[in-house]
Amino acid sequence: MADDEKNEPENPFKGTPMEQIFGAFSGGPVDMNQIMGQMQKMFAPHEGSVNFDLAKDVARHTVAAAGPDPTPTSSQQGAVDDAARLAELWLDTATSIPAGATTATAWSRAEWIESTAGTWQQLVEPIAAHVVKAMSQALPEEAKAMAGPLIGMLTQAGGAMFGQQVGQALGGLAGEVVSSTDIGLPLGPERVAAVLPEGVKAFGEGLEHSAADVLLYVTLRECAHHRLFQHSPWLRSALVGAIEEYGRGTRIDISAIEQQMQTLDPSRPEDIQEALAGGLFEPERTPEQQRALDRLETLLAFIEGWVDEVVTEATKDRMPAAAPLSEAMRRRRATGGPAEQTFAALVGLELRPRKLREATTLWAAMRDRQGADARDAVWSHPDLMPVAADLDDPLGFAQGESRTQGDDDFDAALGELLDGPDGTGDEDRPE
């Protein structure tokens, strides 16, 4: 029996989205109908660089394989409605920014996938387009011929590969999120505050707080996010713009691939498997990508810090459980959280607002010194926003002290993302 296992062909696609297709040929009786069905999905026509029909299909299967995904009951929907009404009343006392959500709803994990897929496609498409293009252009003709059909298959199936990666990542993320804005991005429909009761239940396990308190706290954060995104429409374009810039910076080290390809024997699957496992086609992060990631991380920190600050004010003297729940949520984000694993699994794009505490302190200090209205007015235009350097001196920003723009290009980058490279908003700013 052991000899039979040793004689089984190595899977050259191990660790890649194509592993399960190759595995069908070596895992016992071959079901050609299943194989042809999978291949048909992989090579089916699709718009853009990502096969998102395949992505949603994989995500749904991932969720189904993880266990039951019940449709929220009427009592769960009623609890979300009640929590949203109370949350909006409390938030009205903490911020002058009006309610952004007009509807509250409870989602299953499958409903989260369906309702956020369009936004995920918008976010991932720019990165996928540049990675697939870079992958197809990276190898010279001699190296392509040396690798045989493998390189051609990987290039041709690039959209399907990304579709499977996105689907697997979204399926895993659906099992962890608690709401539509859980990762700081506006993923769901506008003005719809959506909460996942099963996700809220999982978040509350081991926290020793009542289910009602956990649900109310999650709903408070969800409603606060919607207020901010509706009040500041430039936020969405700034976030998407930073992600698009990250995608534009994608580069593949051609010389490294050429060097490694010269040592590969296409007739030896184990060599190809080892090369793929070692990241043969994975793009390296460029300086341009790092700058885009830094801007994205900083903006997410300001968003999450404002939400923390406003929810803290809204629950002060009303909800004793809010402080420990806030700390639990902050730890969840600081240790990586669901967003970082998802984006890292796709193309190495991490979303971790490392200076979340500093951002919260900045907004709280501004409220103490200038009032809540001044704190919220900053979000009316990107030119009024603090920059990354202000996170190192939040009290200075709160007191209106000037910053040195040369120390941080966050304002200039935001202006370029919003106005385009030919805009006039940045011409007076120093380099």
UniProtKB/TrEMBL annotation:
Which GO terms fall under molecular function for this chain's record?
Answer: hydrolase activity
Q: Name one Pfam family in it.
A: Zincin_2
UniProt keyword Ion transport present:
no
What keywords sit in the KW lines?
A: Hydrolase
- Keyword Hydrolase in annotation: yes
Q: What is this protein called?
A: Hydrolase
